[in-house]
Amino acid sequence: MLGAAVTSRWHLTVERRRVMRVVVDLNRCQGYAQCAFLAPDVFAMHGEEALLYDARPDDTRRVDVLRAVAACPVRAIAVEGAGGKRAADRMGVPDGA
């Protein structure tokens, strides 16, 4: 049983650090790639139209991800978890920046 308890504690520690979840509406995304410029380790274009992204980036990338959310001209990116869109608004990043 000790092994299960250690695994559970490790899992909870990882989840506490990674509370941010990125969601992209790929039907809405038009491939402008502003997100890939602002957070290249989270978002990447594959070809001219396909967006690849890390749905659970490390919390250290939060500021860059929130800037990418604010910069998306079609509002295809959302962040779930602590901070989210309201944090982008508090940062003073204007819509479409």
From TrEMBL:
UniProt superkingdom: Bacteria
Species lineage: Bacteria, Bacillati, Actinomycetota, Actinomycetes, Kitasatosporales
Name of protein: Ferredoxin
Classification via InterPro entries: Fe-S_cluster_ET
Cofactor: [3Fe-4S] cluster
Annotated keywords: 3Fe-4S, Electron transport, Iron, Iron-sulfur, Metal-binding, Transport
Keyword Iron recorded: yes
